[in-house]
Structure to design on (203 residues):
């Protein structure tokens, strides 16, 4: 079985939001590179895109899953956008397990397959639901578990950074987006996402 972890639970308090130059715990500065260029974060789209869309999400968030096909469509149609889906597992142990599993799949080159599969699920998830979904698209839970355990520090560190960033931005829940220098809490429809990308590109 994958080694399970407990996500940070202490809230970080921040005042009026400035997108960048807010302060994280332990005195770390929240920089654009920290948000947009985390070397451990898997991504979709164009790695050299002139705009990066960051979405904080949870595999049990119905709004995230409903919006995901639109997000992918916009990114693929544009062709010049990098998409970083930042796991922010806020709905309990199953969400953490799902995030770990997909990040483990990323270590064996199966990120998009695992991500797409879980984003097509409905409602709340159990550990069995997650495992059955991933094996149903041809993935091996033994290989994923081995990858998670091999890269546990890398995966745990990434999840901790995602959590700290989402909290620093004062996001109340998922989904939430950072595009350019702007925050977009909540669902973005197709027009809203296209407009946000255009705004970032012009800035």
């Amino acid at each position: 079985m994958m080694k399970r972890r407990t996500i940070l639970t202490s809230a970080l308090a921040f005042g009026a939001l400035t997108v960048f130059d807010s302060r994280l715990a332990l005195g770390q500065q929240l920089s654009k590179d920290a948000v947009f260029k985390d070397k451990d974060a898997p991504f979709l789209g164009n790695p050299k895109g002139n705009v990066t869309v960051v979405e904080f999400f949870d595999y049990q968030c119905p709004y995230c899953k409903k919006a995901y096909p639109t997000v992918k469509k916009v990114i693929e149609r544009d062709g010049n956008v990098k998409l970083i889906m930042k796991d922010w597992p806020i709905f309990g142990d199953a969400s953490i397990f799902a995030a770990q599993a997909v990040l483990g799949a990323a270590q064996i080159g199966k990120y998009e397959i695992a991500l797409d599969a879980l984003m097509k699920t409905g409602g709340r998830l159990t550990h069995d639901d997650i495992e059955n979904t991933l094996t149903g698209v041809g993935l091996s839970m033994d290989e994923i578990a081995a990858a998670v355990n091999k890269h546990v520090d890398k995966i745990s560190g990434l999840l901790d950074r995602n959590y700290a960033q989402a909290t620093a931005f004062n996001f109340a829940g998922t989904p939430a987006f950072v595009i350019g220098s702007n925050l977009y809490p909540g669902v973005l429809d197709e027009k809203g996402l296209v407009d946000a990308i255009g705004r970032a590109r012009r800035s």
